[in-house]
Structure formats: C-alpha cells, structure tokens
C-alpha cells in the first residue's frame, strides 16, 4: 500500500518508511532484547541495516499493509514504527502492529497517539469497520496504549505464546468503527 501524505498528530508525524530510515538506531532497537521481547521479529533479528531495507521494501510493495515511521514533530527523531495490515477488504478489518523502539520515548503516550491516528486512518480513509491488535498478556505498556487509544480487550487466548521461556496468554484488542446510519 502507498500513503502519499504524512499523518500528523499534535506531537508526531507518521509517514511511509523508506530505505533511508534503516538506520543503526533502528537496527539497535531490533537487537535490543528489552525492546523486542514482545515482537515476533525477535525470532529473526535483522543482521544489518540492509535487512531492514529489505523489510521496508517488502512491506512497501505489499498491497495489503502500510508501514509508517513514527517521528517526533519537534525534532524529526525516528522513535518507532506502526503498521496497519494486513488489511482484509472483504471483511473490512485490519490489524495493527507497532513499536516504540527509542526507550527514551517510552511512557510518554506516543504509542497511543500513533495508534489512535492510524486507527482513525484505517476507519475513515480505508473504510475499515474493525481494527485489531494482538499483544502478550505481560505487555502492560501496549495494553495501556491500546486502552488509551479507545480499544477494548475482546479476547484472551490462554497459553498461546512463549516469552522468556514461559507460556503466556495472548490478548486481542479491538476498535469498532462508529455505526453509520
């Protein structure tokens, strides 16, 4: 999917990722076991910025996903990424995945701000009726960000994932589009 504009929030700019965004800092997030502990990508950590470029190009070429960088408006710092997709048009639903990789940006509400804006885009501009996000039960930061963005916990699947050698539940959060009459 292609987004030919930048989504703006009061503190963030969300724009399509490009090869130039495959920085050493981004690679460092993906290699940081604290940052990636809840990401499935921790099982195939990129070896180089070239691996990140390939990932960015792969998602950008996709017809059902959109990868956006999360940048601070005040100084342009790249602090994370958010992806909407796959978008399942026949069911008018899409999934969200996100990462605030810069640990200095944790706990400041940037995640919920980005989630809220990308969910708005998915509903209002892509015509989705439902946006979902799955997390591990111990990912308290993500749970808080989703709730703050208006999502609701819809399902818990016990013993669904392995994290740090333990079986954990996964949780599905959802946001329904307003009913149109």
From TrEMBL:
Q: Which UniProt keywords apply?
A: Transferase
The record's annotation in Gene3D superfamilies points to: 3.40.630.30
The UniProt entry, under PROSITE patterns, shows: GNAT (PS51186)
Query: One of this protein's Pfam families, by short name?
Result: Acetyltransf_3
Q: Where is the N-acetyltransferase domain?
A: 12-178
- What is the official name of this protein in its record? GNAT family N-acetyltransferase
- Source superkingdom: Bacteria
Q: By its UniProt entry, which InterPro entries does this protein fall under?
A: Acyl_CoA_acyltransferase, GNAT_dom, N-acetyltransferase
User: PANTHER family given for it?
Assistant: GNAT FAMILY, PUTATIVE (AFU_ORTHOLOGUE AFUA_3G00765)-RELATED-RELATED (PTHR43792), N-ACETYLTRANSFERASE DOMAIN-CONTAINING PROTEIN (PTHR43792:SF1)
Single GO term (MF)? acyltransferase activity, transferring groups other than amino-acyl groups
């Amino acid at each position: 999917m292609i987004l030919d504009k930048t989504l703006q929030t009061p503190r963030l700019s969300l724009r399509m990722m490009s090869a130039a965004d495959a920085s050493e800092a981004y690679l460092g997030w993906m290699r940081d076991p604290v940052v990636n502990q809840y990401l499935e990508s921790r099982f195939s950590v990129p070896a180089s910025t070239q691996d990140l470029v390939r990932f960015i190009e792969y998602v950008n070429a996709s017809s059902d996903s959109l990868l956006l960088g999360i940048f601070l408006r005040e100084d342009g710092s790249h602090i994370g990424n958010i992806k909407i997709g796959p978008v399942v048009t026949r069911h008018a639903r899409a999934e969200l995945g996100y990462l605030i990789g810069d640990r200095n940006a944790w706990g400041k509400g940037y995640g919920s701000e980005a989630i809220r804006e990308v969910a708005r885009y998915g509903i209002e501009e892509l015509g989705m009726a439902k946006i979902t996000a799955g997390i591990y039960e111990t990912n308290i930061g993500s749970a808080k960000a989703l709730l703050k963005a208006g999502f609701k916990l819809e399902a818990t699947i016990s013993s669904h994932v392995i994290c740090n050698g333990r079986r954990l539940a996964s949780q599905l959060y959802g946001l329904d589009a307003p009913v149109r009459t």
